[in-house]
Design a protein that fits this description.
about 500 residues; alpha/beta; Rossmann fold; Alpha-D-Glucose-1,6-Bisphosphate, Chain A, domain 4; 2 domains; seven-stranded parallel β-sheet; six-stranded antiparallel β-sheet; globular
Length: about 500
């Protein structure tokens, strides 16, 4: 790979799946990287967040003036924004508006080049709504009058990608699958490693400017063949796939929602796009940026190995927004506050708190958490299926079962926002302070807060309140016990950190 002159690069989507992996590569390449994010706290937990060449700026993509100032001084801008997770069914309109804002700001700020990762697919009237939206973003960005490089990719295979998660969970959990006819659709999946190569290498190849380039893996396969490869790599018996003509994308999305960690809101557009053939129509990528991409089997094997070793650098879950502190004024707020004195330092207490959820569970009454997760899943919420990206570490913005991490301050605080389906807004907070009456000890305060929405919310609170004595008291005692044991015996045993062998992971 040739090396371009170091430049100042603006990067949107740095907290997302692709952007979170591209940023450290650009930094290692000697570039100065300016990450334009909604909330800089989401980057604080990344291993590259302290890099000398990294700038982080909180930017409102809906504010063209603010966006223009954030882009000033940069020569190239990566546009890796997608609103499918945050905007739901309205993602198309939101995507077009954000792309229009970015195009105007890039032109005003003097950006020389925009690089955009779009969707691969045949042109024409039969393109799915999702892929059509991706093409419209291309057109909107091109209107800026700034040189635009578009890299079009099909399914991205990598540890933590939404498409791969759907594929893996379907194969892993269903020995018999009744599927739509899209299982016979041809596709050219690409490894995340190859996607990152092309995104970085196009900086070094001037001929890639003002072009739309199809990028794909080494082989064209059907989705049914992909499922067979996943089963083989997981050492599972051959899966029986029964294609039927009547399973609509809507029904497919509900099925995906029930079986995988990917919710119906995201699964619907992804399932809709599976009917389209997504194969590279030319070899421009290989001509301009010579590279031997991975085969589907190689990409799947690599993704599974990274997941097995708990080395998932980024996940599709990372793209979720971090809610701001709710405005609790003007309405009744229910609070359940409990405290415990712990014979361990605040740092040790935090170590015990930060591993809750996922396979580790919640220290007490895990059967109640499983029931609550199942109920949430049945009404369209995430349930407990999401688990957590890393079993040991946690950072602001991470997904944790049906929670989202709002604050993760080691030795001080962990605050979670509930993303489950609720008739109101809920948070769960753990605060650790030094115990003035016990040197070396600490006081752990656990606060569950709920702001109900209407009468339904009030009834909900009172219906679950009797269970708080079991769930929250047990959790507080479990954290105290774990922190004190760690202080006496050292770190957690590896078996406690494994989530693959527990029902909660489902």
């Amino acid at each position: 790979m040739t090396t371009s002159e170091p430049q100042c690069i603006a990067l949107t989507g740095a907290t997302g799946y692709v952007g979170g992996r591209l940023a450290p590569r650009l930094l290692d390449g000697g570039h100065r990287v300016r990450c334009l994010v909604r909330n800089t706290r989401k980057l604080a937990g990344r291993h590259w967040s302290e890099h000398d060449n990294l700038d982080m700026t909180e930017t409102d993509m809906s504010d063209v003036g603010q966006l223009t100032e954030a882009l000033r001084g940069c020569t190239t801008a990566y546009y890796l924004v997608h609103s499918m997770i945050t905007a739901g069914r309205d993602y198309d309109r939101v995507d077009q508006q954000l792309a229009s804002n970015f195009a105007a700001a890039a032109r005003a700020a003097g950006i020389k080049r925009i690089i955009y990762l779009g969707g691969l697919g045949e042109l024409g009237d039969g393109l799915s709504h999702h892929l059509t939206s991706r093409r419209r973003v291309e057109e909107t960005l091109a209107q800026a009058g700034v040189s635009l490089t578009v890299l079009r990719a099909a399914m991205i295979i990598g540890s933590g990608s939404a498409s791969f998660e759907i594929l893996r969970y379907l194969v892993e959990r269903l020995p018999v699958m009744v599927t739509p006819r899209w299982v016979h659709t041809k596709c050219q999946p690409i490894s995340i490693i190859d996607v990152l190569y092309y995104l970085e290498e196009c900086l070094n190849v001037p001929e890639t400017t003002s072009r739309a380039i199809d990028i794909g893996g080494a082989e064209v396969v059907t989705y049914r063949e992909l499922m067979a490869i996943v089963a083989e790599e997981l050492n599972l018996p051959k899966r029986l796939v029964i294609p039927v003509p009547v399973l609509s994308p809507r029904l497919s999305s509900y099925w995906i929602h029930m079986v995988t960690p990917v919710g119906a809101r995201i699964a619907r557009p992804l399932a809709d796009g599976l009917a389209n053939t997504v194969v590279c129509r030319n070899d421009q990528a290989n001509v301009l940026m010579p590279h031997e991409p991975s085969s589907p089997r190689q990409a799947i094997r690599s993704a599974l190995q990274h997941e097995a070793s708990n080395e998932v650098a980024t996940s599709w879950l990372d793209a979720g927004p971090v809610p701001g502190d709710p405005d609790w004024s003007g309405g009744r707020t229910f609070i359940d506050e409990r405290t415990a004195r712990v014979d361990a330092s605040p740092e040790s207490v935090y170590e015990a708190v930060k591993i809750i959820g996922g396979g580790h569970g919640y220290y007490a009454a895990d059967w109640l958490w499983r029931i609550r997760g199942t109920m949430d899943q049945l009404v369209g919420g995430p349930g407990l299926r999401r688990g957590r990206r890393d079993n040991r570490e946690i950072a602001c913005g991470d997904a944790l079962d049906f929670w989202r991490v709002m604050d993760a301050s080691p030795g001080r605080r962990l605050r979670l926002y509930a993303e489950m389906r609720l008739p109101g807004k809920a948070t769960l907070e753990f605060d650790m302070t030094e115990d003035p009456d016990n040197p070396g000890g600490s006081i752990l305060t656990q606060v569950a807060t709920f702001r109900p929405k209407g009468l339904t919310g009030i009834l909900y609170w009172y219906s679950v309140k009797p269970l708080h004595g079991i769930v929250f008291t047990g959790m507080l005692k479990g954290i105290k016990r774990e922190a004190e044991q760690q202080t006496i015996g050292g770190s957690l045993p590896p078996s406690d950190m494994t989530h693959e062998n527990t029902d909660l992971a489902a």
